[in-house]
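Anyone else keep sequences and structure tokens together like this?

Example one:
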Amino acid sequence: MSELTEIRNHEEIDSIKTKRHKGCLNHPFYDWITLLSTLFVPLVVGILTIVLPLQQQNLSNRQNENSQTIAVHNRLKDMEILHDQQKQTILNTYEQDLCNLIFKYSSINNYNDTNNDGIDDDNDDERVSLVIRTKTLYALRQLDPVRKILLIQLLIDSGIKNRINLSHLDLSSLTFPPGSFYNQLNFVNIIAKNLSFKRIHLYRSNFSYSILDGSSFQQSNCSYADFSYASLQRTDWTNTDVTQVVFNYTNLLGAKITSQQLATVQSLKGATLPNGTIVAI
């Protein structure tokens, strides 16, 4: 019996050893690993063969898009520089033409002073003024806000400003440099909505018949100025000196101006006050 038992034990041990050396489906694990390795490598190569060209194509597309974006940006920048140069050329040309016209005007006046037969002064003055007005309006229509201010300053400095008619001129949304002196400025019958005249000296200036809706005169000196028949709706007069200002028939509807300020003006005849009340004539 002992020998039989020993034989059975040996058979069980051999059976266990055999099972250990066999894998799934009676194949060793080594064979399966070898098979999977053989299949995995071509699979990876195939996937990479498909994926890598797609990635390269996407990268190429992104590079092309970036190149196009940069090209468009550079083009817009070049156009902006070109437009800026054109505006500066217009201003420079206007300045040169103005100097020539002023010199010609002075020469005509000097000639008339030394010749009794002279040319009609009024006709010459009118012709020169008309030419300057035409050139001024043409230049202002094409200039940017900053250069418009420079052109107006040029007119003021040249002394020709009050000799020409600037009526119907559109100066809307301009911002004049704070602290500037524009005393006796003559802006009659102009369009200048949302104009900024903050901390500006406008002593004895004339804005009659002008449209100045939404403009700001904060902390400015507007004493003795004339705003007769002007539209000043929603204008801002905070801390503004309006001593002896003429507001005859002016529309101040919605304007920021105090009753204390209005008490210092010269006249409000027929004016529309901020609250909509019309002053009796």
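And example two:
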Amino acid sequence: MFTGIIQGMAKVREVVSEPGLSTFVIEFPEEQVQGVTIGASVAINGTCLTVTRQQGNHLYFDAMQETLRLTTLGTLQPGDDINFERAARIGDEIGGHLLSGHIHTTATIVEILRPENNVTLWFELPDAWARYIFPKGYIAINGASLTIGEVAGTRFNVHLIPETLRATTFGNAVAGQSVNIEIDSQTQTIVDTLARLGYDRPAAL
């Protein structure tokens, strides 16, 4: 289980690709690998992966073909920065919202606005997932728990403060970039329950 509060950025150092499997070697800040054990769960750009090996502050993760297909991990290259969060422990403060680390879909950054002292990112996601997007609702983008701003059909935006830009990869975001999306589980449950009762939300306009 994760909270959506990004603990920092790490750097991809190596990607080893084999049929149906990719192994990522990721360099973490020294202080963030204390107490890591083989088998531990770490969210990499929001995707829950398992530590398979450790060499100093380099952690190894395997991602199967299905994970690579459903997420943006398949596009990672050596030198890329990623957002990370180690799994939450009982008693940890939940500063964002509860996340599973299971990615539902991907979205594309379609516009970046830079008003004074903040940045607004506009995203477009597949129509099938737009039904779960509501103004002021929760969403996880590349593992970060964020509040949705405006919604327009299959597009929505989020507003980011300087601290979020500093502490995550969003500071280097570019239009056309794909990101991982995890829909808020409570929102999904409510929408799907209402749909089964015949109160389905209209398709995105």
